[in-house]
Automatic annotation (TrEMBL):
Its EC number is 3.1.4.11. This is Phosphoinositide phospholipase C. Glycans are attached at S183. Ca(2+) 4 binds at I623, D625, N649. GO terms for biological process: intracellular signal transduction; lipid catabolic process. GO terms for cellular component: endoplasmic reticulum; nucleus; plasma membrane. Residues 427-459 are annotated as: Disordered. It comes from Cyprinus carpio (Common carp). Ca(2+) 5 binds at D678, Y679, D680. Its cofactor is Ca(2+). It is found in: Cytoplasm; Endoplasmic reticulum; Membrane; Nucleus.
Length: 729
């Protein structure tokens, strides 16, 4: 492994390889020493408790997303008086895995780990695809070499095939083994193993395609590759220049590069790269007009952001805000209640969920608001506090958020909300401007009130100091007619999912029209105490901007949210399609074919093969029987699912070669989700991986779909290989 090269880096890595005791901290009471050491591969960290003889557990450096220094987590803040900041650090993992809070014996030791891990992470970030592949192969070699003699015998090779999800008959495996064993030693050394692996993973379906376009059967000239890009990938102008760029970027052989040609290895490298993926790279970065009024954008939004688990007894945590903001969320929720010592707290009122300090939440929001996106963050306030504690809230907002706060309330002049810019906007109750008094009465219109439907609507006292900081005013929704006549652009109503559904069925185009001018927030029904989610697509179809989901709950609904917001620089703001922004033309998602711009498309997906699908944790002993399902989400007419048949016992390189066809009536609102499952005839199929993207971001031609785990993290190098065709109907 090419490790970082400065002398200091070298010393840090040596110290990490020697291993040392670090204290793992979970709370004030739970602080235990564990022995941590960096493995020889410089990619894995092994750890064990002091009493375990030699059973180490491990995690990979590539699972670490961030290293925080000092007291930057709740657990470490709790022990701040006991351990100084310069000995403390936190490892943050990708996905929904909990943080690891550690305390070293000295500041010097802490720095060795902090700098060492950061250097290794940077090293991995900068690796090109072929180096990543070599690493992946050497990882398997280390796993397979059970007796650690640096070579693999046939028995170890068979075990390895099982680990890799390959079910191969003994004869075939033996044949490959003998071919790879050039030295005829009965074992495979380093380079022989690489050959064995390459023969195993040979992609005949890619080789066939390569040969269809190669003039000499050996390589693709720049002209051959240009023809492939035009004919199959449907690239237009600039294909000739693009072909040369691809050769320079992906061809491993210097000779071929100098001759402006591409070998089959380079061709495969291109196909599995980001450019060869199904997601159009031109839509990854910021590409939309960001100067339109806020009501014209979908805004990535979280519900009860402070919760890590369920809504009844789960923990509330600052970490939940950090996770949501890092995922590009642009609307977070803060439920405020009276706390002891005059300090307001945040939790799910009237339940056993734990409480966190309001000031800690606001400090965290200030620190993380613009880490993932430069665009506005809306903080939705549910205020249940006394006048005294509301004054404390107002002070914290002003002191902690300072200039980030946008408070100049929209006056009567502007007819629209402003366009997105780097500011924090507060949304909550406001007192009317008709009286001068420092407090005023407002009706209780929030979710807590919605859940207690039987109780009459109560009035609440609000202090003007807090009221004046609110940029968006929460108001009760009367009717579309009423809001058309009298609503101001800074007023916003919240609907429970069932109410939003009712209006969409009864008055679809009125709802769409309302959402061209006003912001609408939708939240999960109060009975979802397990923090489950509703399907956000029905709400997006109506043009609702703030469709709040429980970010902490993985599943199809969050896949759709992640899928929609992956485009446009993951900024958390997506410009709604024109059909949902035009005030003149009435679009109704229930009958899209009546709209003047109706142009349906045929979407055809040939599911060709799968690559290195992961084994299922709960079934270590068995090899998967994979199938692929393609799901379309969008207007009701477009909702559809089709699946391939399953392949017996092959997660390694299953071949389906099946074509699934769909009609897409409203392409600009459609999302496509690819799901891979392990077929089980006795019970529900098990989830293997998925990938979701907007229909408008799909690239036609031969593409790889890179699978993600249930948590939305990469399952590299697992993928499915497809051919995509989109035609006018």
């Amino acid at each position: 492994l090419s490790t970082p090269c400065s002398e200091q880096d070298h010393q840090n890595l040596e110290a990490m390889k020697a291993g040392m005791f670090l204290r793992k901290v979970k709370s004030r009471m739970w602080k235990r020493p564990r022995h941590y050491k960096l493995q020889e591969d410089c990619k894995t960290i092994a750890y064990k408790s002091s009493w375990a003889i030699n059973s180490y557990s491990t995690f990979s450096i590539s699972d670490v997303e961030d290293v925080r220094e000092g007291h930057q987590s709740e657990a470490l803040l709790n022990v701040a008086d006991e351990f100084p900041a310069d000995r403390c650090f936190t490892l943050v993992f990708r996905g929904r895995r909990g943080n690891l809070d550690l305390v070293a014996d000295s500041a010097k030791e802490a720095q060795a780990w902090i700098r060492g891990i950061r250097a290794l992470m940077e090293n991995m970030e900068n690796m090109d695809e072929s180096t990543k592949l070599d690493h992946w192969i050497s990882d398997w070699f280390l796993k397979a070499d059970l007796n650690k003699d640096g070579r693999i015998n046939f028995k170890e090779a068979k075990k390895l095939l099982k680990m890799m999800n390959v079910d191969m008959n003994e004869e075939h495996a033996c044949c490959l083994f003998i071919t790879a064993d050039k030295s005829e030693s009965g074992t495979l050394e380093d380079q022989e193993f690489v050959e064995f692996y390459k023969m195993l993973t040979e992609r005949t379906e890619v080789l066939d395609l390569f040969q269809d376009y190669s003039s000499d059967g050996q390589s693709l000239s720049q002209c051959d590759l240009e023809e492939f890009l035009r004919e199959e990938q449907l690239e237009g102008e600039g294909s000739y220049e693009h072909a040369l760029q691809l050769i320079d970027r992906y061809e491993p052989s210097d000779t071929a590069r100098k001759n402006h040609s591409m070998s089959v290895d380079g061709f495969l490298m291109y196909l599995v790269s980001r450019e060869g993926s199904i997601f159009n790279p031109e839509r990854r970065g910021l590409f939309q007009d960001m100067s339109q009024p806020l009501a014209h954008y979908y805004i990535s939004s979280s519900h009860n952001t402070y919760l890590m688990e369920d809504q009844l007894k789960g923990p509330s945590s600052i970490e939940a805000y950090i996770q949501a903001l890092k995922r590009g969320c642009r609307c977070v929720e803060v439920d405020c209640w009276n706390g002891s010592n005059g300090e307001p707290v945040v939790y799910h009122g009237h339940t056993l969920t734990s409480k966190i300090l309001f000031k800690d939440v606001i400090t965290t929001i200030a620190n993380y608001a613009f880490k993932a996106s430069e665009y506005p963050l809306i903080v939705s306030i549910e205020n249940h506090c006394s006048i005294e504690q509301q004054e404390v809230m107002a002070r914290y907002f002003r002191d902690i958020l300072g200039d980030m706060l946008l408070t100049n309330t929209v006056d009567g002049v502007s007819s629209e909300l402003p366009s997105p810019e780097r500011k924090i906007l507060l949304k909550g109750k406001k007192i009317g401007n008709d009286s001068e008094s420092p407090t005023g009465e407002v009706s209780d219109e929030d979710e807590a009130a919605e859940m207690n439907k039987d109780s009459p609507k109560s009035k609440q006292n609000l202090c003007r100091e807090l009221s004046d900081l609110m940029f968006c005013k929460s108001i009760h929704f009367h009717s579309f007619e009423h809001s058309r006549m009298s609503a101001k652009p800074d007023e916003m109503s919240s609907f429970s999912e069932s109410k939003a559904r009712k209006y969409s069925k009864e008055a679809g185009s009125d709802f769409v029209l309302h959402n061209t001018r006003q912001l609408t927030r939708v939240y999960p029904s109060g009975i979802r105490t397990d923090s489950s989610n509703y399907c956000p697509v029905d709400m997006w179809n109506m043009g609702c901007q703030i469709v709040a989901l429980n970010f902490q709950t993985a599943g199809m609904e969050m896949d759709l949210n992640d899928g929609l917001f992956t485009q446009n620089g993951s900024s958390g703001y997506i410009l709604k399609p024109e059909i949902l922004c035009k005030k003149e033309s009435l679009f109704n998602p229930e009958n899209p074919e009546e709209h003047e711009d109706y142009h349906p498309l045929q979407f055809s997906v040939k599911v060709i093969s799968g690559q290195q699908l992961p084994k299922l944790k709960q079934k270590e002993w068995s090899i998967v029987d994979p199938l692929v399902r393609v799901e379309i989400y969008g207007v009701s007419l477009d909702q559809a699912k089709q699946e391939t048949k399953y392949i017996d016992n092959n997660g390694f390189n299953p071949r389906w070669n099946e074509t699934l066809k769909f009609t897409i009536h409203t392409p600009e609102l459609a999302l496509v989700r690819f799901v891979v499952e392990d077929y089980d005839k006795a019970s529900r199929n098990d989830f293997i991986g998925q990938y979701t993207l907007p229909f408008t971001c799909i690239q036609p031609g031969y593409r790889h779909v890179h699978l993600l785990s249930k948590d939305g993290t990469s399952l590299h190098p697992s993928s499915i290989y497809v051919h995509i065709k989109i035609t006018q109907l």
